[in-house]
Each structure stands twice: as C-alpha cells, then as structure tokens.
C-alpha cells in the first residue's frame, strides 16, 4: 500500500534551499520514493491553512519512508535543511 510524505515548506534561504533540493532528490529516489507534487500554485479552498510551498512524496510503504528518514544519506542533510527552510512534515498511509 502506498504511503506519503506531505511537507509544508517556508523557505528562509533560497540559495541554500536550492542546494538542499538538489541533494535530497537522490536520497528520495534511492529509497524508492518519488515526488508527486513539488511546489506549484496553491489554492486554499477550505479552512485557514496558508501553506507556503507543498511537496508530496510517494513511497511503496510506511517502512520505506521510515528507512529514508532514518538513512545516513537523508540525516546528513539535517543542517542544510534546517538552515534553508522551516518544514512541517506529516506521513500518512495510503488507502
């Protein structure tokens, strides 16, 4: 069953975030994930949520997501991620 990572990103350092995006893409792919949504125009239809930038990643399972999030390749990016953006993240099992 597919599982998803959903992030709401507020970029605080655009040039550094470009580097994070370049580096993180390979880690996602190495763990079987793919970007379903990466940026793009946002239209809020209900509620008062005001996301800045959305990314949705799809993996084959929650186990793959956890393996990716705990991987040395991804955790090596913690510093650049935290210096370039404020990120809210949820993971959800697909239906």
Output mean pLDDT.
96
Q: β content, as a range?
A: 25-35%
Q: What level of helicity do the residues show?
A: 25-40%
Structural class estimated from helices and strands: alpha+beta
Question: Can you list the strand order of the major beta sheet?
Answer: 2-3-1-4
Indicate the overall shape.
Answer: globular
Rg, nearest Å: 13 Å
User: Which regions are unreliable across 5 or more consecutive residues at pLDDT < 50?
Assistant: none
- Helix segment tally: 4
| Sequence of secondary-structure elements | EHEEHHHE
Protein topology:
Elements: E1 3-11, H1 14-30, E2 34-38, E3 54-59, H2 62-69, H3 72-75, H4 78-84, E4 85-93
Q: How would you characterize the overall build of this protein?
A:
This protein has 95 residues and is of the alpha+beta class. The protein has a four-stranded antiparallel beta sheet. The chain is globular, with a radius of gyration of 13 Å. α1 packs antiparallel against α4. The chain has four helices and four strands.
Provide a short characterization of the protein structure.
The protein has helices at residues 14-30, 62-69, 72-75, 78-84, and strands at residues 3-11, 34-38, 54-59, 85-93. It has 95 residues and is of the alpha+beta class.
Keywords:
single chain; 95 residues; alpha+beta; four-stranded antiparallel β-sheet; 31% strand
């Amino acid at each position: 069953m597919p599982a998803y990572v959903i992030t709401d990103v507020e970029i605080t350092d655009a040039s550094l975030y470009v580097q994070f995006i370049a580096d993180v893409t390979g880690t996602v792919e190495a763990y079987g994930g793919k970007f379903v949504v990466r940026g793009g125009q946002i239209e809020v239809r209900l509620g008062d949520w005001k996301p800045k930038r959305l990314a949705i990643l799809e993996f084959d399972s929650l186990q793959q997501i956890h393996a990716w999030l705990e991987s040395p390749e991804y955790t090596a990016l913690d510093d650049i991620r935290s210096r370039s953006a404020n990120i809210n993240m949820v993971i959800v099992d697909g239906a």
